[in-house]
């Protein structure tokens, strides 16, 4: 398994020491025992590894194969169009930044 954490990218092999890490928005690449590779885009969360078991808990996730790139690019453009001309709009910055990270992750 390879994942992007808040401290950088980390690779985990089978039968290793336990690990608990906070994930950054991005993707997780998992290679199963039968050699199949699965890529999942996720947003916020953590993972733990204990011997041969991996647990991943995230706010939202979507398999790379299921991502609609056109929709993600449209979402990215909507977020970029947010203007901050008034104090009321400043409160929307956090939400817009989160939406931007989600859209960019989906495009990757």
Structural class, please?
A: alpha+beta
Mean pLDDT: 78
Low-confidence blocks of residues:
none
Radius of gyration: 16 Å
Question: Which SSEs are present, and which pair or pack?
Answer:
Blueprint: E1 2-5, E2 8-11, E3 16-31, E4 37-51, E5 53-63, H1 69-80, H2 87-90, H3 93-107
Antiparallel strand pairs: 1-2, 1-3, 3-4, 4-5
What does the model show?
- One of its GO terms (cellular component) is proton-transporting ATP synthase complex.
- GO terms for molecular function: proton-transporting ATP synthase activity, rotational mechanism.
- Belongs to the ATPase epsilon chain family.
- The protein is about 30% helix and about 45% strand.
- The model has no long low-confidence stretch (mean pLDDT about 80).
- It is built from 3 helices and 5 strands, in the order βββββααα.
- It starts with a strand and ends with a helix.
- The chain folds into 2 domains: about 1-65, ATP Synthase, domain 1; about 70-105.
- Strands 2-1-3-4-5 form a 5-stranded antiparallel beta sheet.
- With about 110 residues, it is α+β, with helices and mostly antiparallel strands.
- The chain is elongated, with a radius of gyration of 16 Å.
- α1 runs antiparallel to α3.
């Amino acid at each position: 398994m390879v994942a992007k954490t808040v401290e950088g990218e980390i690779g985990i092999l089978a039968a290793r020491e336990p690990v608990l890490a906070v994930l950054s928005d991005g993707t997780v690449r998992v290679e199963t025992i039968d050699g199949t590779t699965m890529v999942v885009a996720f947003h916020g969360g953590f993972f733990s590894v204990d011997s041969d078991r991996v647990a991943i808990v995230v706010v939202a996730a979507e398999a790379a194969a299921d991502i609609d790139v056109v929709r993600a690019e449209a979402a990215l453009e909507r977020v970029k169009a947010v203007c901050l001309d008034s104090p009321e709009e400043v409160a929307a910055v956090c939400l817009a930044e989160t939406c931007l990270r989600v859209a960019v992750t989906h495009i990757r």
